[in-house]
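Standup notes
- DV: blocked on the single-chain target, sequence here:
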Amino acid sequence: MNKTTKTFTYIIGIVMTVAMVGSLILPMISSQVGVGDSYLETPQPTPFPEPTMPPPPDTDAIDFDSRYLHRSGLFTIGAPTGWSPASDSSSADELRAGLNNSEVQSVVELRINKNHAGLSDVESLSDFLDTVWLGHTWSGYSGWDETSRKILGDEVVRIDFNLWRGRSHLIARQESWIEGGDIYSARVVTAENASRELKYLLRGLANSVERIGDYAGAPYDWDAYFDNSDKHMVRFPSNWEVTDSADGLPATIEGDSLVLVVSKADVALASEDAAMDWTESWRSGVTARSARAVEVAGASGYQVSYRLKTLDGALASGSMLMLRGTDDQVHIANIRMPHLDEDLLAVDPAVYPWLAVLDSFRLLPNLEIEIN
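- DV (later): unblocked, structure below
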């Protein structure tokens, strides 16, 4: 083999070797490049699912026949079918009742505010419903926005809202008016796809509000106990507690060392003396001190002051208000204070302001309550 042929053979061998090595190494490099490229790609975020809106409530299945009694005993509202009590509150200046239907994401609410500013026209009422007031009332939501405001017939301020609670978008409408010197605001919240149903609920709520006239001018910040069977009601400071109660049976309410019992008895009382005799028969150790005939909100009866001496010698003073009901039964509110020896019909009520609890006792035979 000459020198030229030998050189050419070496070159061919080298080229074939390089080709063979390249066929093995290049795929490995290519696969690694691919892996590197995947790390360099920007990851795409997983989209969050949009909140699912419930179907609008069926207005044909909703009425306001069930009455809801606010804790203050000062008013009732019609509870729309399917809505349950969620919250109510009372303060010296505001009463609020709220009912909720979680299945359709809806709330109905009524507020009654003291009209301390003496508002008398719808323009001043609209000014009262400012961003500060509204912001306070929407504090339970993550965001809100007023979308429109109108004055209707020189009597009502109507305001529409967009609301947000978490990622849920809701809508609301409020109508406010002045009645009996107080400021009323009816409000409904629904899912954004239920605007027609919102209007139906708001109209039903606003038309269903009823104040209990027997308590006109009574303090806002007292609670009430109502017996739906015996149809009597008593109001008391909100720090007192109902410790024992059942419809048609005696109820016990306690607070500030006082004990109040409301009950009913089948007894005929035709005179002050008869009322004093019955009081002394109530339990041993009772001595009636004085009595007087009374008439309370159309119900006649007697009030008796008594002295109670317990077996261990401790003294207490008490007073009973006994009213004849339309059921021909005597309804009784009996309050007593331990460690007191006074004729409670002869004292200055300003010295014993808790006597106002007894004065709040009323017979309400026509009040029908389904939700209390």
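- Follow-up: The chain has three domains: 1-29, 59-215, 222-363.
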